[in-house]
Amino acid sequence: MAEEFDVVIVGGGITGSAMGIVLARTGVRVKILERDKVYQDRVRGEWMASWGVKELQRLGLADILTDAGGIFVNRFIPYDENMPPEKAEDFAFDIPGLTPDLPPTLCMGHPAMCETLNQAAIAAGASVNRGVKSIKVQSGNEPSVSYRLEDADVTLRPKLIVGADGRNSVVQRQLEFEMRQDPPHNLLGGMLVEGKTSWPQDAFTAGTEGNIHFLIFPQGEDRLRLYLCYDFDDRARFTGPDREKNLLQAFRLKCLPMGEEIAQCKPISAFHSYSNEDHWTENPTKPGVVLIGDAAGHCDPITGQGLSIGLRDVRIVSDILAAGDWSEAAFEPYVDERLDRMRRLRFAGQFVT
Q: How far apart are CA 45 and CA 111, in angstroms?
């Protein structure tokens, strides 16, 4: 007889695995389906804003990540063309000092974060399959998920399907959720580098000089994650065989005192870029299905809010499920809160862009 599950989560990344941990801890029978056998570096999700760390703490997941190498980053240094470096350092501020009880931000590599949370979901009692192919979902009063694992075809009929399978969500596409988006704003590219620099491991920065917007996040052990936002007209500069070298050269900036050191670092991941725009749906639910994280829509990543959005989704949806009503109507508070949250983040992202 096939094993029965209350919830099937499609997507075993950060958001899906976090949801799996939280539900399994409360005795919900959870199955997580993940496409990748080994998590890939997708150049996103290495920095978590303070409000996301707060959600992580509320969910009881913060220690899992810090024990696995996640580092708290307390300070923001506003390096920018509008002021000399020494003046920017005078204006540096500690994140926890902004408001009472505000935690610092958190930095950790995306693949490591996925793996850590996925293993924690297994430890909490969730059943996890990785390397899943050909997923097909059906919504309704009796939702179903079918997929292929190795040489076997499997069909599950849980009470609820949670779509947590990212920007290219299979669940979102197959069930024809109505998604909206604005025109692309610009391009954002990133790369993980390693090398001896004087960059402080407790600080991050974001600023603009000339026609680029740059972001630097420490990753521990002499590693930095570098990001550049640039116009579509500059696409050729950051494509082709010289793209990694050109990205490093771009950090030789007058406003950045460690720019020369950073330019000498060694790339230890591929350089990837993608367009910046907002995607959202006014209703991430259907009968028997709820979308969370990027599958439910995401804001322009120039402000780095993706992980925090996903963790807030996990908390709200898991709280609804804990109340015992799993009907589509029970998720209306989540629908309303998320719609307004994404509207506010969309405004903030457009302002920064």
A: 9
